[in-house]
């Protein structure tokens, strides 16, 4: 297994020159790679990042999310579904330009939209069709898509891995699977490790994220049973830390980050990688 670090701990606008020193630190802390937001990245930056990451010997994955007011795969509005396809294709292009082969994120629907009830059959169908189109395009570039079920406070279409499995089976593409996230599983699954075992064949990517979004191992969402389930099922992909801080103002209200969860912003990375290495060695 490889250990990655999501750059959203420090920035939601990564820049290849401005953040080169940070990338170098991430390498020194013992990470195998980084995760970058690909949906709002300038294509030129994607190519520059690829050069920088190659120089540092860092692998890479990408992440994307959709604003429901702008782009929504599950919307009844064809314009919003079309915008979702356009945004996803940009993210896929940037993923390829970065030299990455996996794009992940809560891409079932646009975020921030709730109807006051659960998913309707037509919404589910629209989302399946939209992600199938994106997945078919991704396949032409050798890119896999890992769809992330997230908690009920952020999304209503797909909250559990079981629902995610049903969704990707309907999409029906070999390059479209799931992202399993410890934070969201901690909220939605009755037994997180068992849910991961049941969905194992569809899990393409893993996010290690504490219950409070802070330092992995400091809370109760990332216990040893998580790593045991992955090892037992032969998982050999990325374990990417997804932690957040108040260092990124644009994420504070979106993710309800009302306080700091560590003495220093870097702790989630610096201490988190040590915790993960201890459990996978």
**What is the name of the CATH topology?**
TIM Barrel
Rg value: 17 Å
Mean pLDDT figure: 94
CATH superfamily: Divalent-metal-dependent TIM barrel enzymes
Strand order of the largest sheet: 1-2-3-4-5-6-7-8
User: How many helices does DSSP assign?
Assistant: 10
> CATH first level: which class?
Alpha Beta
Residues in helix, %: 40-55%
Any idea what the shape is?
globular
Order of helices and strands: EHEHEHEHEHEHHEHEHH
Number of strands: 8
Task: Give the low-confidence spans.
Answer: none
The major β-sheet equals: 8 strands, parallel, barrel
CATH second-level architecture: Alpha-Beta Barrel
Number of domains: 1
InterPro entries: IolE/XylAMocC-like (IPR050312), Xyl_isomerase-like_sf (IPR036237), Xyl_isomerase-like_TIM-brl (IPR013022)
Domain Xylose isomerase-like TIM barrel: 24-258
Protein name: Sugar phosphate isomerase/epimerase family protein
Organism: Cohnella silvisoli
């Amino acid at each position: 297994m490889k250990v990655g670090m999501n750059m959203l701990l420090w920035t939601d606008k990564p820049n290849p020159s401005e953040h080169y020193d940070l990338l170098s630190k991430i390498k020194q802390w013992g990470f195998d790679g980084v995760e970058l937001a690909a949906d709002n990245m300038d294509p030129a930056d994607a190519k520059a990042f690829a050069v920088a990451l190659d120089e540092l010997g860092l692998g890479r994955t990408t992440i994307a999310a959709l604003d429901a007011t702008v782009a929504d795969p599950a919307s009844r509005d064809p314009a919003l579904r079309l915008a979702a396809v356009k945004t996803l294709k940009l993210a896929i292009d940037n993923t390829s330009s970065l030299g990455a082969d996996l794009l992940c994120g809560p891409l079932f629907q646009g975020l921030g939209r709730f109807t006051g009830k659960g998913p309707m059959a037509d919404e589910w169908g629209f989302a399946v069709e939209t992600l199938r189109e994106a997945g078919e395009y991704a396949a032409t570039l050798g890119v896999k898509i890992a769809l992330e079920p997230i908690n009920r406070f952020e999304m209503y279409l797909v909250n559990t891995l079981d629902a995610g499995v049903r969704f990707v089976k309907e999409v029906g593409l070999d390059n479209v699977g799931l992202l399993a996230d410890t934070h969201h599983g901690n909220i939605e699954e009755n037994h997180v490790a068992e849910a991961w075992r049941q969905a194992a064949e569809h899990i393409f990517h893993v996010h290690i994220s504490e219950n409070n979004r802070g330092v992995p191992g400091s809370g109760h969402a990332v216990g040893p049973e998580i790593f045991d389930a992955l090892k037992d099922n032969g998982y050999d992909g990325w374990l990417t830390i997804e932690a957040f801080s108040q260092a990124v103002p644009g994420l504070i209200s979106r993710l309800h980050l009302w306080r700091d969860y560590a003495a220093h912003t870097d702790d989630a990375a610096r201490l988190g990688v040590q915790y993960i290495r201890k459990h996978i060695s």
